[in-house]
């Protein structure tokens, strides 16, 4: 609040400050709204831009920044490659996600998450697998928060429902859990069937995060193998938002999607174990 007051006193917009410091406008907004941890360097740079001459004010803000560097819950698990995303997800009010290959992480059962992570990281030690599984299940607290649950909208490709992860028995349990979660008032699940052909999500997974404060710009998250991409420019966010609207329009409706998921669960239950050896990781 004090940083915002200093900026307004200087007669500068958040965009002007961002240009001076060569950072995104959303970073300035999040710093002012307390939705991003602030470093002493951030305070020093901002006070320099605002030409704050009173050393007592600068020292006070520097001390506040030092005291505020409290780590999020995920830091207790050690080094997590996507910790930036977890921080955004923790602060988000809503999340729109398209998943082409697997059930979204926030809707995964523990057994399914274990099988997914094990398959994706075949050379990772068991301890690392367990850590990632624990982080994934801990993230799901946002869905189960009775006071302020995350508003989740998920469009899931048919491939994710047909892919046998772990075992068919495990898939039945996962799809039944997904079906149950789809009835939560703050969770919407739609299925993108194969018959729809090419669609705006054909290039792969992405997520759009929106935040409670209107001054915080939305963020598009694209996961990579060695690095992730975060898009915050209004034009980029708008393009992905329009893409997602087309995805939702082309996907099956909510009730149709539930019937489709139930049918997939039934098919897995009736098919028995996969015919090829080595596929059952249960």
UniProtKB/TrEMBL annotation:
<feature type="domain" description="HTH cro/C1-type">
    <location>
        <begin position="3"/>
        <end position="57"/>
    </location>
</feature>
<dbReference type="Pfam" id="PF19054">
    <property type="entry name" value="DUF5753"/>
</dbReference>
<dbReference type="InterPro" id="IPR010982">
    <property type="entry name" value="Lambda_DNA-bd_dom_sf"/>
</dbReference>
<dbReference type="InterPro" id="IPR043917">
    <property type="entry name" value="DUF5753"/>
</dbReference>
<dbReference type="Pfam" id="PF13560">
    <property type="entry name" value="HTH_31"/>
</dbReference>
<protein>
    <submittedName>
        <fullName>XRE family transcriptional regulator</fullName>
    </submittedName>
</protein>
<dbReference type="InterPro" id="IPR001387">
    <property type="entry name" value="Cro/C1-type_HTH"/>
</dbReference>
